[in-house]
Specification:
22 helices, binds adenosine-5'-triphosphate, Rossmann fold, 4-stranded mixed beta sheet, 16% strand, 507 residues, alpha/beta, single chain, 5-stranded parallel beta sheet, Ribosomal Protein S5, domain 2, binds magnesium ion
């Protein structure tokens, strides 16, 4: 007796179809799983056996072989329990096999036959719609996630026996989208709380408008962390495509709130400086997206940058350039999206007062050099905006808070982003920060006069080719905020000034 059902396995954030074949034969009782299963899949045998016995069926004392095809993809995690159990019951003639074969089946089983939620349902649901018949059996707790995919018919049972009943009766399908999660009405922290630092707020506005990386340097207590934490309040909303990308990553990482549906707010991640390389970049024995992927389409904030291990922050270089990370493992390499805005904050020296006009710095030049050297040249080159955050003087501290609220800043950001959406309508990018060299040459046109001044500035500051392209992208965003069609000289001048802000520290 043979039965086959469809299931799936995650590869990065994409799902890949897997056939689960069951063969039940006469012979000495045995239960084997073949087809490159990992430990969790092999353990599936015990869960399936108990779940079937505890759901008022009898696990047959025969020779049972399960094959997971294609055999060259590694099968990980417990999500094969339900398809294996359903295929076994189908081979025994307890489930209508032609009906069952229309579904992609995913789910973990408890010993008592309850179906438990699994990670990555959204990616599997997209696969079921694109590559199979648009029907799926998912754990009840994951139904909200599966229903994000349009035109997908879903059976969402909570136990194995319920799954069998619903498939046999042929009318257990649902496709009613879950109620939208109520969005919090506005972000609590607001830029109007920050006194002074108008030039930093302007720089952060530009960064948010175009998705540029920012490095903030300043003495303790000048407001770097405070400013960075207010960035989410001015980020533009995500479009559906961006929201789906982010939700997929959180689903794969198992961080999706079980009741929630689509993630609509841009992520803001701020990992501690003790983070490991797998935590930052992703990977591990059960591969998981790291912080760079969890901040996809949002912000990665690294506070106290020199406190991070140097080799770990160097790992950011590839994702900052490519917008994705590839992790090579023994049998496969996995790619996760990782297109984020990097915000870094640091003091200019160990004591923190190197640039302070009043407090004197107690560090010697070797200490300062060693401190700043923790951030390598190549990493520094990837920051479009280097901005100094000076300590407030007493008058500023006693002044009333700033007039400009996050809301007005956000409106400017949204306007500038709309121009960019239109600009890149036929491309798979959404903001100026994502442009590659080719795009920069196409979209960022400058006249001869600007070219000359830019060349002069680059010679004087000793800037790289990467810096050249990044200055042009930044200039484009500054022009977009002003609603101009073309980049003007003052836009380029402002961009160059942001670029040169950090040079005095590192030279
Ligand atoms: N510009 C400002 N306006 C209002 N309050 C401020 C400002 N700067 C600092 N503060 C106050 O000082 C506190 C400390 O600021 P913050 O943590 O942002 O400093 P920091 O620059 O990150 O310092 P460190 O380098 O030590 O991390 C803030 O929580 C806030 O109460
Ligand atoms: Mg701080």
């Amino acid at each position: 007796m043979i039965a086959t059902v469809k299931s799936g396995v995650l590869q990065g954030v994409e799902a890949c179809m897997v056939d689960v074949e069951v063969d039940i034969n006469q012979g000495l009782p045995a239960f084997n799983i073949v087809g490159l299963p990992d430990v969790a899949v092999k353990e599936s045998k015990e869960r399936v056996r108990s779940a079937i016995n505890n759901s008022n069926y009898r696990f047959p004392p025969r020779r049972i072989t399960i094959n997971l095809a294609p055999a060259d993809i590694r099968k990980e995690g417990p999500s094969f329990d339900l398809p294996i159990a359903m295929a076994t019951l189908s081979a025994l003639g307890l489930v209508d096999s032609s009906r069952l074969n229309e579904y992609v089946i995913i789910g973990e089983l408890s010993l008592d036959g309850t179906i438990r939620p699994v990670n990555g349902i959204l990616s599997m649901a997209i696969m079921a719609r694109k590559q199979w018949k648009g029907k799926m059996i998912v754990p009840r707790e994951n139904v909200g996630e599966a229903l994000l995919v349009k035109d997908l018919k879903i059976i969402a049972p909570s136990t194995l026996s319920e799954a069998v009943e619903l498939v046999n009766s042929g009318n257990g399908e649902t496709n009613i989208p879950p109620e939208d999660k109520v969005l919090p009405s506005g972000y609590k922290l607001d830029f109007s709380d920050v006194k002074g630092q108008e030039h930093v707020k302007r720089a952060l506005l530009i960064a948010a408008a175009g998705g540029h990386n920012v490095l903030m340097i300043g003495p303790p207590g000048s407001g770097k962390t405070m400013l960075a934490r207010r960035i989410p309040s001015i980020l533009p909303p995500m479009n559906l495509e961006e929201a789906m990308e982010v939700t997929k990553i959180y689903s794969v990482a198992g961080l999706l709130d079980k009741k929630s549906s689509l993630i609509k707010e841009r992520p803001f991640r701020s990992p501690h400086h003790s983070i490991s390389s797998a935590g930052l970049i992703g990977g591990g024995s059960y591969p998981r997206p790291g912080e760079v992927s969890l901040s996809h389409n949002g912000v990665l904030f690294l506070d106290e940058l020199p406190e991070f291990r140097r080799d770990i922050i160097e790992l950011l270089r590839q994702p900052l350039e490519d917008g994705k990370v590839t992790i090579a493992r023994a049998l496969i390499s996995i790619t996760y999206p990782a297109d984020f805005m990097l915000i870094g904050a640091l003091n200019p020296c160990p004591c923190g007062y190197y640039t302070d006009p009043v407090k004197s710095c107690t560090c010697n030049s070797i200490q300062i050099t060693n401190y700043l050297r923790k951030i390598s040249g190549p990493l520094l080159d990837r920051f479009d905006i280097h901005i100094e955050v000076p300590r407030l003087d007493t008058n500023q501290i006693f002044s009333s808070p700033s007039e400009e609220k996050s809301e007005t800043m956000r409106e400017k950001v949204i306007k500038a982003r709309q121009i960019q959406y239109k600009r890149f309508v036929n491309k798979s990018i959404f903001n100026n920060g994502q442009m590659d060299t080719q795009d920069v040459s196409n979209y960022c046109r400058i006249n001869e006069e600007i070219r000359k001044i830019l060349k002069h500035a680059m010679d004087r500051l000793g800037l790289s080719a990467r810096a050249y392209y990044r200055i042009l992208k930044l200039s484009m965003t500054i022009a977009d905020i002003a609603g101009k069609d073309n980049i003007s000289l003052e836009d380029v001048a402002e961009a160059i000034q942001y670029r040169s802000g950090g040079i005095k520290f590192w030279n």
